[in-house]
Amino acid sequence: MHTQFTDQSVLEAANARLDRVFQDFDNVIVAFSGGKDSGVLLNLALAAGDRHGRQIGVFHFDYEAQYQATTDYVDATYASLRGRIDPLRCCVPVLCPTATSMHETHWRPWDPDKREIWVRPLPEDHLGPDAFDFLTDTMSDYAFQERIALWHHKRRNASRTAVLVGIRAEESLDRWRTIAGTQRRYRHAGLPWTTRLFDDVYTAYPIYDWRVEDIWTANACFGWGYNRLYDLFHLAGVPLHAMRVSSPFHNYAKSTLSLYRAVDPQTWGKLVSRVNGVNFTAIYGDTVAMGWKDITKPAHFTWRDYALFLLDTLPEDTAAGFREKLATSIRFWREKGGVLSAETQADLRRAGIPFEVGEKSNYKTDKLPVRMEYADDVDSNDFKLIPTWKRLCICILKNDHVGKYMGFSLTKREMERREAAIAKYRDL
């Protein structure tokens, strides 16, 4: 996807996309997180629904442990739209990743076995686990959020369903890649801002080209309500582009977990007892202790020694997950190789690290594949791209159970499980 400037404003472009959605899809759902982007998208979709004389579904996955201001905003939104929308506020005990603990890789919101330490009571008019025949004990929050689109598609006996998601390409490379990386055959009618989830079920990103300033301009111009948490963030000195509303325990949120103490102390007190390691992560989440800065190791250890030592100190299941990811990565770099720039290859030569350069890569890049063994450490601007034992140590210290910091892909077993689930539900 390339940048193309037109005479349309982002508002006009978003409305045109929404009109196309309502023309092509008989069932429309808005994914409403309670954040600034999904809030603006919801207001735009409501207006589009009115133009086309259509009702929309509003899906909110309630994580239980969240800022009180977010809960207040979601409560108020559903209350104001009662009778106008199909409410899909879901409170289910699925597996959600946590980066606050070496002993737990996941936690369950609304876990019935931990009712006495829930952060807050169940909201009114919610959909619980009994509402979903596809729910399993091993289902993740992301899998649930995908699967509910197909569930609602069947529930409404729809011909074609669109799930509107308020992600913006400006937010991160991952979000840009979600939109730009979709192959044409997985788009609806070739539209670059759509992605197929299942047969006749698509996600659509009508505000993908908006900037954060556009979001707040729209709220101001139209007088739309919004999550007042952003006002508290502003008072706490959080930069405009760093304001996020999400589950507090995942990897991207842990460096700002301590904000809960400042802007929502009552909720903070409940978080401490709800999920293992919360207090430690809030104190050290943006420090050496959590692997974010320049970590050090015991002088008598190599980085390989230190990585193996850390693995030996972890709970058995957690260590097994890291070892499986590591084995996959070692095999990848030894047999296939990862693409590295000429500058990064020069860094390897200066460090005296042997490697082989292949002739071509299957990736769409001018960089050539590099095959090598795991190194202990390399001084390079592209440190995160190079397979080193130090990088593994950082991954462990960050409680990065998925291995994103190391660039790990899913293991073969995980990919097979994912493909099996997709195949199972595709034809339901």
Automatic annotation (TrEMBL):
<dbReference type="InterPro" id="IPR002500">
    <property type="entry name" value="PAPS_reduct_dom"/>
</dbReference>
<dbReference type="InterPro" id="IPR021845">
    <property type="entry name" value="DUF3440"/>
</dbReference>
<dbReference type="Pfam" id="PF11922">
    <property type="entry name" value="DUF3440"/>
</dbReference>
<dbReference type="InterPro" id="IPR014729">
    <property type="entry name" value="Rossmann-like_a/b/a_fold"/>
</dbReference>
<protein>
    <submittedName>
        <fullName>DUF3440 domain-containing protein</fullName>
    </submittedName>
</protein>
<feature type="domain" description="Phosphoadenosine phosphosulphate reductase">
    <location>
        <begin position="28"/>
        <end position="231"/>
    </location>
</feature>
<dbReference type="Pfam" id="PF01507">
    <property type="entry name" value="PAPS_reduct"/>
</dbReference>
